[in-house]
Amino acid sequence: MEKLSSPKVLKKIIEKYGFRFNKKLGQNFLIDVNILDKMMEAAEIDEKTGVIEIGPGIGVLTQALAEKAAKVVAIELDANLIPILDETVGGYPNVRVINGNALKIDLKTIITKEFENMDVKIAANLPYYITTPIIMGILEKKLPVKSMIVMVQKEVAQRMIAKQGGKEYGALSVAVQYYTKPRIILTVPPHCFMPQPKVESTVIKLDILEQPSVQVKDEDRFFSVVKAAFGQRRKTLLNALSNSGLFNMTKEEIRKTLLDIGIHEDQRGETLSIMQFAQLSDAIY
Questions:
Q1: b/e map of 233-243 (b: 16 or more CB within 10 Å)?
Q2: What is the pTM of this model?
Q3: How confident is the model at residue 161, as a pLDDT?
């Protein structure tokens, strides 16, 4: 079978079906086999692996996954791509294509029905506009998934791995590092896609932790504290927490709580480590 990562093959398929790229869906198809190979190597897919692929496009990554994995379930939102996928990956008996919205589909049921006795991983070349909802939705549902290998906008990847004190560090950094061990694999320039996006992309791997990186008494309260701390980044932590309306404490009580755990009231959210957020969430109410 022809390699779909070839620009020549891709153009031929697009012309055959009269396919038009949908800007609203953020469609950019990978056309660099070297990037694809490095992505596959990092994903560590083998015959014991079941893969959920989000946004297969014409099947460039799907094809590579099908040749390594036990089974691939690819979820594609654009109905115009379904007949193309029937041609490009329909010949693989271990591939199932679903026309649907990955934000709405019951991924837990898919995992239960499709991947019995398999290590489940997620792979995706994500449209920039749904990157965070997709990733956080998967992590918050605590799906039985080993890891995620995803292509995202470079700036988003930098936020995922950011450490305290930097301008990229924020609620996404804390959330991703609470649930996973993130690792940047490589940066992908625009010319590796058709059509070319206006920004650089990054392949990032998220190894999902068996237990969160910090232990907290109340996970919802932990994320409420994080949300409040970064909701008004320019405000001090004291003002951000007391103005949020999320806690049953007076400003003075919050001030005392901060001081009791060694956090100065004038600090801002970006100065706190994940461990400090955990301590704060356990102390606040």
A1: eebbbbbbbbe
A2: 0.94
A3: 98
